[in-house]
Amino acid sequence: MSYKTKLIIALGLVYVVWGSTFLGMKYAIEVLPPMMVSCLRFLTGGILLFLFTLWKGYGIPNMAQVKGAVLVGIMLSGIGNVAVAYALRFMPSGLVALLVATLPAWMIMLDFWFFSKTKPTLIGLVGLIIGLFGMVYLLDPMNPAHTDNREVALFPALLVFAGSVAWAYGSLKSPYLPLPKPIQSTAIQMIAGGCFSLLMSLVFEKNHLQAFQRMTQETYMALLYLIIVGSYIGYSAYLWLINNAPPQVTATYAYINPVVAFFLGWIFKGEVLTPRSLVASAIVLIGVVLMTIGRRKTVTASATVD
């Protein structure tokens, strides 16, 4: 396949598959602790995938490659997904996806500070300001209402932002690191993220055995979907993108996923957003689109000069 065809397929998979994983997580955490769900999802999937690579004759990667894959795995499937899983206990899946949609803002800032040093264009800066305004309007930090009475719980929301920063850093750092071949890199990153999630779950969560005993057929199906579709297909497509496509193109999934998550949450879980949340969502998504357009123009101009 041509590069353009691969790019379209990878983007399509990340757009749709990752938008649906918020719903899958929602089903799984109805029974299991959220961090344990991330552990089961990535540790199981990663081990099976790594064994498959050995069976296919890939061999053992060198230590530098393992360290690179572990770092990216902790940032992405570890910190990033643990934050999302935890937040889904307190907010509708579409709203969590919207908070994750701030990813382009973090990528723009981190890319400027630590990587390419490329300044955002005027339209990108306007998008950044609009997006941040939408988030402030959504979170309403000056509202003295108790956490339980808020439309959006502040601590889980801030945790999602922290996870998004880690995800953005890992994505930008990945092309600079020595990594194994893509499929084996995916496996090691999943294992690293799963181990991190296990550690967090053992430290912060309780009653694991009781939760396992309460697992239903729906729980098993949700985990299976998260492992096969969310991790093997969606995560592999994302890793291809961050190593073969410009960061601002990869980041476009951030404003498609909330739309998919909103729709699926409404259909399957009856999740309905308040007028304030809908207005904030529109503002944030407008900002994200402008940020992405601004970054795309910057890269296109740089490529023309080179």
Description:
With 306 residues, this protein is mainly α. The chain has one domain (3-305). It is 77% helix and 0% strand. The chain contains 13 helices and no strands. The chain has helices spanning 3-28, 34-55, 63-87, 93-100, 103-114, 122-139, 154-173, 182-204, 208-213, 217-244, 247-250, 257-269, 275-305. The longest helix is centred in the C-terminal third of the chain and has 31 residues, at 275-305. The protein is globular. The two termini are 26 Å apart. Residues 296-306 have low confidence and may be disordered.
Give the assembly state of these chains.
single chain
The rough form would be described as globular
Determine Rg (CA atoms, Å): 19 Å
Tell me the span between the first and last alpha carbons.
26 Å
Which segments are poorly predicted (pLDDT under 50) over 5 or more consecutive residues? 296-306
Number of helices: 13
The overall average pLDDT, rounded, is 86
Beta-strand fraction estimate: under 5%
Number of strands: 0
Question: What is the number of domains?
Answer: 1
What characterizes the major β-sheet? none
Structural class of the secondary structure composition?
mainly alpha
Helix/strand order: HHHHHHHHHHHHH
The helix content is over 70%
Organism: Emticicia soli
Membrane topology: Multi-pass membrane protein
Keywords: Membrane, Transmembrane, Transmembrane helix
Pfam families: EamA (PF00892)
